[in-house]
Fold this sequence. Notes:
Two copies of one chain form a homodimer.
Chain A: H1 3-18, H2 25-32, H3 36-42, H4 46-66, H5 75-91, H6 93-96, H7 99-105, H8 107-133, H9 142-166, H10 174-188, H11 194-208
Chain B binds a DNA duplex through residues 2-3, 24-27, 34-42, 45-46.
Amino acid sequence: MGNRERIIETTLRLMNELGAEAVGTNRIAAETGVSPGNLYYHFGNREEIVRALFDALEHEFRDVLQRDTERPLAPQRIAAFYLRTFDLAWRYRFFFSGTLGLLRRDPVLAGRYQALQSWAIAELDSIATGIAEDGNLAHPRGAEGIASLALNTWLIWSNWIGFLQISGIAEIRRADMTAGINQLFDVIAPYLVPPFEAAIRRAITDEWAP
Amino acid sequence: MGNRERIIETTLRLMNELGAEAVGTNRIAAETGVSPGNLYYHFGNREEIVRALFDALEHEFRDVLQRDTERPLAPQRIAAFYLRTFDLAWRYRFFFSGTLGLLRRDPVLAGRYQALQSWAIAELDSIATGIAEDGNLAHPRGAEGIASLALNTWLIWSNWIGFLQISGIAEIRRADMTAGINQLFDVIAPYLVPPFEAAIRRAITDEWAP
DNA sequence: ACCGGACTAGAGTTTTTACTCTAGACGACT
DNA sequence: AGTCGTCTAGAGTAAAAACTCTAGTCCGGT
């Protein structure tokens, strides 16, 4: 593996441990075992490294959220959404605490993030609409209610990891993951048709089993 | 008004505009119109200024959340909760974006914040329990369901302002405030008895009117 | 053998930041 | 008048951070 990749990996590790703003290029270089000059050969500046990490995050996220959303939407599919997106958020957790700080330092990144966020919320909306059309979402109070559902899902998801970190949790455990998924699911759960809700909860539990 | 208070005010303004990590003590002193030496006469270090701001935030927040919670809980009371806490979060918005960054730099503050957070979630839980005991919360799925409700309320509330800022909103408008309150209310709304829900929505609209 | 491009090292520069230190102004009380 | 405590100014310091510059090394192709 080349130094470029090793620098990216080190940056991810350090920023996850210490927070993005506490990690400088000199430190990254030292911890990777390369010189600052070498780091700046591979990256024009510090933001470019963060952008490379965001690229990876965005790629994975889009892949999880948009892949094979065939109708009717199966409970297993929805359970997979929850599990994979939470795992993803944890692996790139440096991004979900201090997001605004990163975006303020890098307007280019800000634009990309806002685009991803808009896309994600719209995607969540269309997924919820799909569930409603399948007849599994009862009394959703029309399009407005679904939009609210989608936005709340985004808000809980994108801030759960930050909440854990603020609460002083340094290493995620299965229980924290489960709790987050339950929090997220409880946003939509009251609107779901009971058997469908039960099927999703079962699918989540099943996917946990090794 | 003494320099101490003016420094605190300037810090709040600057941090709200630029983000906490972008505001240094020299800048604060310059913008307040005092010398760095003077600033350090009033505050031992940078964190102390932030702590003073947090003290004010905490004081106001506790006041809003715990004051006269007489039973049965009136819709007007609940509407007031929403309106005042959102206003509060906006006024101290520097704190709600980049919370973790602030807490990492100041372990003392981290402890205080975690205590406040725990207290708030417990308080929200007891408020929801009260509503249930009043007979206004239908099928809450027991204590666990209420706990989930309380936590989601906290998550949405404490992150709505950050969401607005990330989305590129620099100045809050009534519409953004309303949207946030609706998002927050939609967490608990599906569980409420319809007339009670309607009464709260009416109270929110009424309180908006001058 | 040697040339060119990709890569690497590491000392150094510049800028910024938190914070210190000394000297003094101002007002109240004896 | 004098003195003591509170407050203020502003030049200065020390550390850290992002980034640059020069001098290479390594290796495949001719």
